[in-house]
Amino acid sequence: MSAQDPLVESSALVEPVETKPPTSVEPPSLVEPVETKPTPPAETLVKPLTATANLIRLLCIAVACAAAIFGVLSIGTFTAQIWHPSPGLAVAAWAASFGLPVTLGVCSRWASVRALRLIVAAEVFCFIAITGFWLLVRPDPLPAGADIPWAITFTGVPCVAVAIFARGRTAWAFTILACTLSGLVRFNTSAEANPALIGLADGLYSLLLVSIFVALTLAARRAAARVDDATLLTRQAEAERAAKVARRQERLSIDALVHDSVISTLLMAGLGRTAPAVVAEHASKTLWQLDALRSPPVQPVVLVSDLLRRLTRLTRQIAPDAVVRVDNAGTPSGVAPVERTVPSDAVAAILGAVGEALRNSVASAGPGPRRSAVRAVHRTVTVLSTSAGFQVTVSDDGVGFEPARVPPERLGISESIVGRMQRVPNGVANVRSHPGRGTDIVIAWVPERSSAVVEPVETRDPTRPPRTPVVEPTPTLVEPVETSPRDRRTAERQPETPPPAAAKSYSLSRALDLSTPLPRLILALFVLVHGVLAIIAIVPGRPLAEMAAAYLAIVFAAISLMRPLREPFPRSQIAIVLGLCGVGAVLMFIYLPPHSGVPFAHWHLGAITLILVVLAARGQIRAAWIGYAVLALSAVAWAVATGQSVGAGIELVVRHAGTLLAGTLFVVGLDRTEATLRVLTHDDIARARCDATTVAALDEREAELRRVNLLARPTLQMLAAPHVLTAPERAQCLLVEARLRDAIRGRALFVPQVTEAVTAARQRGVDVTVLDDSGDTPPDGLAALAHTVAEVLGTVQHGRVTVRVLPAGRPEIATLVIESGAQRILTVGPDGAVRTP
């Protein structure tokens, strides 16, 4: 086998398609019917679930959970504060306050955004109405020790609900309004000696607590929006890349068919060395193959036994002297054969590649079976079928060739064999040859390891009892061989599929940037609010040093938590935060007497809980709950040490558990949504890639088939009717064959201006070769280049001209080698100007 074009003197029957063509072919009309693109599946018509949509659902569920938690915690307070003039109205107000957020979470899975917004609006109206009722209708102070209205215990729920859907300014405006109303209600109902100070402190504390959750919500929304933008860009890039790959693969598949069938048929007819009946059969089969490309194969898989029969028939047609061997070493003697399957696309590629290899061998390996020769060339086709795949080795002991010296414009090996198998999933082909030592071409299809070539179906005599399963060895298919530079160039031209784009991090610890002005403002509010609470909680006669030290410890814990942190979260930083919180709690418990009677006496419990909420938001949920457990044990120990009950200590911290639990559920839900989002994003990108591949492949196939049919179908239809060709008809076949080669090898220059000039030059007797090495990046000055090439070709009257478009990135975009008398080499710049080296 050599590097010569295998089609020049080939008259063998081609059979690269896996199913039999019809016995009679009705020549289709020149105008092809336009192919209708299939309607995308229903699931592809649904808008993909975005990060923002996932986040809205998560936040609605988090609001519902928080409302349920605070609703349960407020039952005792509500029962003690029920409005006796109308208990039913009070129960309805309580049910609406906590029922609407729960409804929001339940409906978030199926309701539209507009419906969810209406629920949030109803929730806002309900909160304003209830707080207005407390201000206007029920402004009397409540009993001492129970003077915190149940209505203001869920101030943060409607604020976070508004932050889910509204803009940032609207969310912050409503947060300030809600906390102001909460402070005013506390002012009206407080039984303390200075209700104005109590109302101010309570309003500020509510603003601090709610601001943390509102800030988390808005930060998560911004992160979701960034993820959506990045996902959209990734989806578009992946779709464009997949479409580019699909167009190239479809183009190469059509080119392989044109090279193997159309061009070979035209060459046989144009050279006049083949009987008219054989040419007619070739033409009919080629027309059928072109039409068959419009529909997928009827059967997705083909039995190996059927594939063996087709290979044997194909070998007999192309190389009757070749020996076909079936090597199934894995099947023990006396055991019934195991029937396997191979995908139909792999079958088509294997048959096409084997046919091309046999034609190469017959045409170029040495003296063929129809020639007088000193030594005949021996050819073998060895088939190996196991659970590891299907392999065909085409061997001969002919003259051989050097793969590295194969010209790049030769398509027989690079595209019709190696390229064809590379375009099939899990397909591979290797060419091993050396001058004087024959040639081996290994063609194989290896299934995915997870699928194992579909489940084997055993055929046995039903009268025999079931046999013991035999473990079949799976020899390795296609041993690695050293590839030639030509093979490497072919592989380099194949676009590689990059790994799927990794979804951007969606964790709140990364989305929450504590170095921005807003977190610093919240930190300043934290320092201010707890400073005011500490002043209000001063117990007369107690040393202030312990309280001041506790206040400073808690403030420093908050400041250290707000500092920029590295990923992963440093354990030393966690230890510092929890240690300072523990010091502050112990100092405050030492400072407080058993029954101080001052308002906000245990302000440090709320302050530490807020720090733990932020710690959980930074991804350290376990550390946050460990800190809370230590805080709860400290409160119980303090209560017992001061002569109180264990229940009194638990009562001090239990309401703060709701705050930390709400924050924890928020973070846990966001982390789970992150994992779900990664899967959805990957599936969405895969679906976009698949859709783009399908559409691009159909478009490219339609364009390629239209061009091939316009160029070759009239001639093929003429050849399908057996008759002796005249000299003009043979010349026309050769001209059409040359134009098809130009379309494959010189794609960038296959434009009317150049093709007309090339045709005119060939009619004058000039041998013209057009090559395109630019790949998928044609030169920018293509119009100027086409004009220049046409002008140069018009000046050549005899000899040979080779036009080559150079790869991208070079100062010149093309070269023209003119062998007409003295050889000349011309280079063409991007502006179309001709230069002589």
Automatic annotation (TrEMBL):
Biased composition (Basic and acidic residues): 484-495
Coiled-coil region(s): none
Region feature (Disordered): 1-39, 454-504
Gene3D superfamilies the record matches: Histidine kinase-like ATPase, C-terminal domain
Transmembrane segment boundaries: 55-83, 89-108, 115-136, 148-166, 171-189, 195-216, 518-538, 544-562, 574-594, 600-617, 624-641, 653-670
Keyword check for rRNA processing: no
Comp. bias intervals (Low complexity): 469-483
Keywords assigned by UniProt, alphabetized: Membrane, Transmembrane, Transmembrane helix
Protein name per its UniProtKB record: Histidine kinase/HSP90-like ATPase domain-containing protein
